[in-house]
């Protein structure tokens, strides 16, 4: 018997055995992809659908919903409390475990409010939804809703040039353009904390530019 004939005979025998096995097992192997491959495809498709349907809410989404529901500005502590009360977001550590440090969670909320163009700071630690976050008018809205920034802008405009943070702070107090208050609403008396507030406002606002160490001017 020639090698070619033996090959054909072996192939025929293998095919017959395969058909017999398929009949005995309910026709599982009657052509098409392997069951394992079909199972993996189904799992992958289901995972894709679940991911698209159950997209996780981001911290920014949770903050936006809280501010939208209340309809006004809120302090970071209040925002965090409402997020936790309504279970809008789960704060997790880098290893995936649930966060329990309130200070770290407040820092996360503060960073999200500061970095997102959807929110505007109205006072120290207090944020609201920006009126038009997707165009250039958001910057103007941010300045108009911050009395401290307005006071700094007026001082620098009157000076006609750059001033040091200490000088800006001194002129604000001399002209009584802004009242520095604590979180409980009482008037601030800590000069260092007030100067830091002025410095932070100058750094955070795009309407001011640093000309030297601790000196700021109106951006052109």
Automatic annotation (TrEMBL):
<dbReference type="InterPro" id="IPR007759">
    <property type="entry name" value="Asxl_HARE-HTH"/>
</dbReference>
<dbReference type="GO" id="GO:0006355">
    <property type="term" value="P:regulation of DNA-templated transcription"/>
</dbReference>
<keyword id="KW-0804">Transcription</keyword>
<feature type="domain" description="HTH HARE-type">
    <location>
        <begin position="57"/>
        <end position="132"/>
    </location>
</feature>
<feature type="compositionally biased region" description="Low complexity">
    <location>
        <begin position="8"/>
        <end position="19"/>
    </location>
</feature>
<protein>
    <recommendedName>
        <fullName>HTH HARE-type domain-containing protein</fullName>
    </recommendedName>
</protein>
<feature type="domain" description="HTH HARE-type">
    <location>
        <begin position="146"/>
        <end position="220"/>
    </location>
</feature>
<feature type="region of interest" description="Disordered">
    <location>
        <begin position="1"/>
        <end position="30"/>
    </location>
</feature>
């Amino acid at each position: 018997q020639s090698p070619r004939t033996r090959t054909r005979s072996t192939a025929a025998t293998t095919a017959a055995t395969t058909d017999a096995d398929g009949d005995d097992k309910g026709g599982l192997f009657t052509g098409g992809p392997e069951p394992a491959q079909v199972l993996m495809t189904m799992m992958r498709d289901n995972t894709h659908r679940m991911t698209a349907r159950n997209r996780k809410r981001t911290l920014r989404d949770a903050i936006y919903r809280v501010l939208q529901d209340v309809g006004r500005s809120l302090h970071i502590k209040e925002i965090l409390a409402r997020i936790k009360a309504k279970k809008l977001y789960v704060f997790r550590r880098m290893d995936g475990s649930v966060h329990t440090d309130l200070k770290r969670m407040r820092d996360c909320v503060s960073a999200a409010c500061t970095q997102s163009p959807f929110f505007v700071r109205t006072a120290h630690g207090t944020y609201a939804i920006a009126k038009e976050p997707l165009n250039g008018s958001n910057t103007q809205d941010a300045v108009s809703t911050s009395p401290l920034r307005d006071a700094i802008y007026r001082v620098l405009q009157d000076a006609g040039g750059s001033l040091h943070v200490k000088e800006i702070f001194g002129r604000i107090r001399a002209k009584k353009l802004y009242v520095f208050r604590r979180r409980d609403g009482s008037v601030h008396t800590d000069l260092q904390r007030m100067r830091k507030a002025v410095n932070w406002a100058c750094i955070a606002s795009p309407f001011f530019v640093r000309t030297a160490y601790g000196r700021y001017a109106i951006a052109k």
